[in-house]
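Note to self: keep these together.
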Amino acid sequence: MSVVYAKTEGVTLVGGGHVSADMLNRALNMAPWLVAADGGADKILALGQQPDLAIGDFDSISPETRAILGAARLHQVAAQHNTDFDKALDAIEAPFVLALGFSGGRLDHTLAAMNTLLCNPNRRVIVETGADLCVVLPPELVLTLPPGTRVSLFPMGATRCRSEGLEWPTDALAFSPFGRIGTSNQAVGGQVTLRPETPRMLLLVPPTALDALLKALRDAPLWQDDARAR
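Structure:
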């Protein structure tokens, strides 16, 4: 899909899963442009906002919402081989995307969102679940966190990850979704540096770390296009 929505600031992208008013307001403070992925448009309207654009195959957006948005704000993509999250990311060009409403409820939807992250390691995309911020770790991430901040590392493939500033160092660990994982580590306080070997490591931190994570991602290198999982 070609880009249909290009911005020089961050974009808030909303799906049809759990989204609270606090989550949406927090995201819009950081990423002021608002896009819906299919049924996410109904969520946005229910929270008193209107999206600039809705993108998807439109199998879940309501007729009432379609009428409110009008044809100019509806970008339909009929393909069924990928998710509405994928379709929306393909159509958006922005420095970063804050994605809400892609977790909670059905577990397969949450897993699909993690798949989308892994398939786009060359993008700065943060998924907020309400309890976590989730990103694919770039080749190096340096962020500043208060002592005791939860730092969870979840491998989606065999990989290693060097670290500094964590309570339990990870350099010697061979991570795998079938073996060693890294949930519930924590920052000792100050600078945390993470250097994964591959784009197969998910980082999860609390929503209170959004400012620090965004700053770190803006300064971080990205994986090359050929690192994409598909």
